[in-house]
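pinning this so it doesn't scroll away 📌
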Amino acid sequence: MKLLVCVDLSSSMPNLLAYTKQLAQSLNASVCLLHVTDSQDEMLGYGGVFGEFPLYIDPKELRQEIATRFKHEHQQLLACSQQLQADGLSCIGLLVNGAAVVATILKEAQKHQADMIVVGSEHKGLLMTLVEGSTSKSLIGQADIAVLVVPVKAVAV
C-alpha cells in the first residue's frame, strides 16, 4: 500500500507525521510526503513573497527569495522524511511547485500510484473557509482514491 501524505510544513505537522507513522506501520505501507509550493504570483514580481500588499520587487531579489524559501522547505521535508525512515518506514519526500494545490496533489497521487491520500486539517473559521476554501473538502470531492482527513490538533504526538 502507498500513502501520499500532504504536508504544509506548519506547526501542526508533527501531529500529522505521528499519525502517519502509526497508520503506515499498521498497514505496512510506504509513504510519500508531498509539499506543494506555489511561486506563480511571486514570479510576476508583485507581492506574495512576504504576504504583504502588492508592490514591485527587483527580479533578482525575488529569484533569490524564492530560491531561499524552496531550499528551506526542501530541508524541512527532507528532515521529516528521514525521521520516518529512522522509524523503519519506506518514505520519500517530494517538493512540487504547483499553482493549483488540489490538482497538483491529485496528479502526484496518480503519478506515484497512491492508494490513499492523507491530509491534515485544522478547523478554520467561516471567514477563512470562504476566503481560502478547503483543500481537504476539494480532495474528497475530486479524488478517485480514498482520502483520509486527520484533525491534526486532536492527534496526540
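📌 and the second one:
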Amino acid sequence: MKKIQTSSSAEILRHDRCRRGSMLIIFMVSLAMLSLTAAALVRVTLLHRSMVRSNEVRIQSEWLFHSAVARAASQLKTNADYNGEEWKIEAESLGQSSSAVAKISVETIDGKTNERRIAISVIYPPDNVQRATVSRTVTISL
C-alpha cells in the first residue's frame, strides 16, 4: 500500500514565505536595474543637449564673424581711414538671449594701397563660461 504524504501547515507557510522573499528580491533587483538605466538615459540626454548648445554657439559666432567682415568692408568703403572698432551686438538684434562682441582691427598692407588686412575676433556670448571665440584675418580690396 502506498503512503500519501501530506504537508503540514507549517511547511506550507515556510514555503510561501520563501517564495515571497524571492519575489521581493527579484523585484528589488529589477527596480535597481531600471533606475540605473533611467539615470544613464538622463545623463546621455543632458550630454547631448550640451553638445547641441555648444554647436549652436559655435555656428552663431561663425555667422557673427562674417557679419563683422561685411561691416568692416562697408565702413572702409565710406571711410578710407577706418582703422577698426569694438562692435557690441545686442541680444535683441541677434534674436538671441545673449549679446556678442566683435573686435575689428584694420591695417594697411605695405605696397598695396587698395588692400587692407582685417583682423577680427568674435566672442559669443562674452559673459558666459561656455562661449565661442572666432579669430581670423582676412584681406579685402577697396
